[in-house]
Amino acid sequence: MSYLYERIWRLRLWKETHGQDMIEYALLAGFVAVAAGATFPPVANNISSIFSKITSSINFAASQS
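Request: output the structure for the sequence above.
Response:
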């Protein structure tokens, strides 16, 4: 019985799309930031510091769980 339950759970996760929009917006924001950094070199340092802060926040959150 647990095999059947596990199989149903995996199929349910495969069809789950609730987080898809947020990922798409994050990718779009990343592409815009890279394009802005390539177009305006003085902005590149600010964008780099923002991505560094995001990376450190993600790493901190991952270490807490």
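The chain has a mean pLDDT of 79.
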